[in-house]
TrEMBL record, chain A:
Residues in Multi-ubiquitin domain copies: 19-82
Name of a matching Pfam family: Multi_ubiq
Protein name stated in the entry: Multi-ubiquitin domain-containing protein
TrEMBL record, chain B:
Native species: Streptomyces phaeolivaceus
Name of the protein in its database record: Uncharacterized protein
Length: 92, 126
């Protein structure tokens, strides 16, 4: 498995190393390897990915499974980490 | 099924490897999908439900909407299920319809399996 979701503290920003992950099919540089879902969205937005902070983040695992990554969830990322952020839904 | 719908069904199968997945192909290229035995959350008396939905032939340019779960779903606290949930039938089964529309649908990223996860996350948050 390329990463794990944990309920723990992410590393202090600036103390890790740069990792290129994929968010909505675009390369995003982030200081990893341990980052929160919110940090992933913030990095993606700062680098031009057209999402908002309230979008729902999910990770595509190498097994083919998809899992939701909450803002406070900590994931360990590497160059193979692929994420998708989509807008939330509305009642109708 | 259209190639896009077939891919969506494969992604659902991969996301729920331990669940029985029933798929009924529709003549126009869409499909009806039923995922058996998912946990709706601790706030419900029933800790297992099926969840069903239709992926239309227009997918991914159409929303996967609405979703359906078992018709006898009830809350532990006795409260009504609340907004966006109504009683109906789906594929000849008594069902609760969950009406959560993706008004900002992005066909490039909004997949059927992500929508399914979003609906389950919402259901478990009620």
């Amino acid at each position: 498995m390329s990463s794990t979701v944990e309920q723990a503290d992410a590393q202090t920003p600036g103390k890790g190393h740069s990792v290129t992950i994929t968010v909505n099919n675009k390369a995003v540089e982030i200081t990893g390897p341990r980052v929160t879902g919110l940090q992933i969205k913030e990095a993606a937005i700062a680098q031009g990915v057209q999402i908002d902070l309230d979008f729902q983040l999910s990770q595509e695992l190498s097994s083919g499974e998809t899992r939701i990554v909450g803002d406070a969830d900590v994931v360990t990322v590497n160059k193979n980490s692929v994420f998708t952020a989509v807008a939330g839904d509305d009642n109708s | 099924m259209t190639p896009a719908v077939s891919k969506a069904v494969d992604e659902v199968r991969a996301a729920f490897p331990d669940a029985a997945i029933r798929v009924r192909e529709e003549p126009d290229g869409g499909a009806v999908v039923l995922v058996e035995d998912v946990d709706p959350g601790a706030q419900y008396k029933q800790r297992s439900t099926w969840i069903g939905f239709r992926i239309t032939f227009q997918y991914p340019y159409s929303d996967v909407y609405p979703h359906f779960v078992r018709g006898d779903l009830t809350r532990v606290d006795g409260a009504p299920l609340g907004e966006a949930m109504t009683s109906t039938t789906f594929e000849d089964r008594p069902a609760v319809q969950i009406s959560r529309r993706s008004n900002r649908l992005n066909p490039a990223t909004d997949t059927a399996v992500i929508k399914l996860h979003k609906v389950l996350t919402w259901l478990r948050s009620r």
